[in-house]
Amino acid sequence: MSDTDELLRDILTQCRILAVVGLSPQPQRPSHQAASHMQQHGYRIVPVNPVVATEGGHILGEPAHASLAQAAAALAAQGLRIDMVDCFRKGEDIPPLAREAVAVGARCLWLQLGVVNDAALAEARAAGLWTVQDRCVKIEHQRLLAGARP
Known about the structure:
The chain is of the alpha/beta class. Helix content is about 45%, strand content about 15%. The protein has helices spanning about 5-15, 30-40, 50-55, 70-75, 95-105, 120-125, 135-145, and strands spanning about 15-20, 45-50, 60, 60-65, 85, 110, 130.
């Protein structure tokens, strides 16, 4: 196993509450498919989608939140915290999300396949977060923990 695989395995094993920024309510969308897969494998999904949140909606049976800060506050009321901020947003949208991930005490900032922002990752890494970019959480989970319930 490579060092990268070992790090990804550590992240996927230790980060159990995932705030999914840009989670779509549409089942055919990649964000929905990835989050659904993770939920089916025992991860808690916390949708961050301002449009759905404004309508008071839910995605995958969980209430949607307008921002990471609101999601973190809702979890804190339950004695929980966000472990991973999983981003399905454009690379240019990532810097404020990286700062919010640090502010809410997340352990990991994960940028999905096709999402790249080196400066934002460096900022999150400097604050002590694990960082991953241009990788799909579902694909990596299937590859590294297939058949396992971390």
